[in-house]
Design a protein that fits this description.
single chain; 126 residues; mainly beta; ten-stranded antiparallel β-sheet; 1 helix; globular
Length: 126
């Protein structure tokens, strides 16, 4: 099991466990703590991160709800919790592009539905 982080967005606080085998997860840990502003895209919250990464070999565009992703094209953390505007008939989150997989939210990712664009986000170590 990897390191844990806390993401506080508006009135929502969630923890996530990061992958041990991801250079992106290591870069995220090195950048902690940081703050950003939330944006939303369907049932996804995303926000700019203070680092950039190359696309990892196992990057994916379709993920499970609650996956902590890094969008390399926008240097942003993406937290999908349901359908995005480009999801298929199965309803799984489909990201704007292939993203690095950094970890998994603990608990109910649908709590992110309460986050609004412009909400302040803080990411910190647990």
């Amino acid at each position: 099991m990897g390191a844990r982080i806390r993401i506080v967005a508006g009135k929502v606080a969630l923890e996530a466990v990061l992958r041990d085998d991801s250079p992106g997860a290591a870069a995220l840990l090195d950048a902690l703590p940081f703050e950003s502003r939330a944006s939303t895209w369907g049932e996804e919250v995303y926000f700019e991160a203070p680092f950039s990464l190359d696309l990892e070999p196992d990057a994916r565009q379709i993920v499970e709800p609650g996956t902590v992703c890094f969008w390399t094209e926008g240097s942003s953390i993406a937290l999908p919790y349901g359908r995005t505007p480009i999801s298929g008939k199965d309803g799984k989150p489909k990201l704007a592009a292939r993203c690095n997989l950094l970890g998994q939210l603990i608990g109910d990712a649908r709590a992110l539905a309460k986050v609004k664009s412009g909400d302040r986000i803080r990411v910190e170590a647990v």
